[in-house]
Amino acid sequence: MNCCEPKYKRILLKLSGEALQGKDGILNFEFISSIADVLKKCLDKNIEVGIIVGAGNIWRGRQGGEMDRVRADHMGMLATTINALALQDTFIQNGLDAVVMTAVEMKAFAEPYVTRDAISALESGKIVIFGTGLGSPFFSTDTAAALRAAEIKADAVLMAKNIDGVYNADPRKDPAAVRYDGITYAEVISKELKALDLTAAAFCLDNDIKAYAFELKDPMNIYRVAMGEKIGTELHK
C-alpha cells in the first residue's frame, strides 16, 4: 500500500461523549473544532466518515437510579442527539458538510435514518452523524456503532475514547494495568473487559468487523488510524 493512501475508505467513528466535555460545560467546542480539522484531512484523502456519538457528558441511563430503565434510556437517546447537533453545527462552521440522522424520528431536528440515504450522503462527501443510538433501550452506543458500521459497510470502527486502548484492568485504578496492542473479540468477551459493550463485541465477532480503540485526546489519532498507523488497540475476530 502507498504510504500516502488511506488504509480505510469508509470509517465509522465512535466518539465518547465524555471525551467531548468541557471543563465549564457539557461541550468543549474548541476541541470539537479540532476534530473537524482532522476530519477535513480525512475527507481530503477521500475517506468517508460516519459518526456515532455517546452522551456520557450529559446523561447515562444508569444515572436514573430508581427510574424506569426504558425511560432513562430514552433520555440518553435525546442526549446523543444534542451532541450530534452540536457536532453538526461545529463541522458546518468549519466548512464541512454534515447531516444528522436519527433512528427515532424527530423531523424538526434531523433526517430519519435510512441506510441507503446514509450511504448516498457518505458517497457525496458528507459526514453522517447518527443520533439516538439504535433507537431502542438496553443497547449502548457501542452496539449502535457496530450495527451502523455493518449497515453502511464501513471498513473499520474507530473507537475514540478517553483511554488510549484496551487494558487488562482499568488503568485509572490499577497502575499495573497492561495495554493490549491487539486482542480478539472472543478474549474481550471471555475476560469481560470494559473495552466495549459485550453485545457490541459479540456482534463484531459474528460479523467480522475490525475496530480500533484509541485516545481522542489528540484528534490526529483519528487520521493516523485511518491511514494505517498502529495506534491504541486493534480488535479483531
Description:
By secondary structure, the protein is an alpha/beta fold. The protein is 35% helix and 19% strand. It has seven helices and eleven strands. The chain has helices spanning 29-44, 69-93, 115-123, 141-151, 185-190, 198-207, 220-226, and strands at residues 10-15, 48-53, 98-102, 111-112, 127-131, 156-161, 166-167, 179-180, 182-184, 211-215, 233-236. It has a nine-stranded mixed beta sheet with strand order 4-3-5-2-1-6-10-11-9, with helices on both faces. Helix 1 runs parallel beside helix 7 and helix 4 (141-151) packs parallel to helix 6 (198-207). The protein is globular and about 45 Å long. The mean pLDDT is 94.
Main traits of this protein?
237 residues; alpha/beta; 9-stranded mixed β-sheet; two-stranded antiparallel ribbon; 19% strand
Short description:
The chain is 35% helix and 19% strand.
| Helix residue percentage | 25-40%
Distance from N terminus to C terminus (CA atoms, Å) equals 23 Å
Secondary-structure-based class equals alpha/beta
Q: Hey, roughly how much beta strand do the residues contain?
A: 15-25%
Number of strands: 11
Task: Show unreliable segments.
Answer: none
Q: Given the C-alpha coordinates, what overall shape results? A: globular
Q: What is the makeup of the main sheet?
A: 9 strands, mixed
Biggest sheet, spatial arrangement of strands = 4-3-5-2-1-6-10-11-9
Q: List SSEs in N-to-C order.
A: EHEHEEHEHEEEEHHEHE
Mean pLDDT: 94
Report the radius of gyration as a whole number of Å: 17 Å
Number of helices: 7
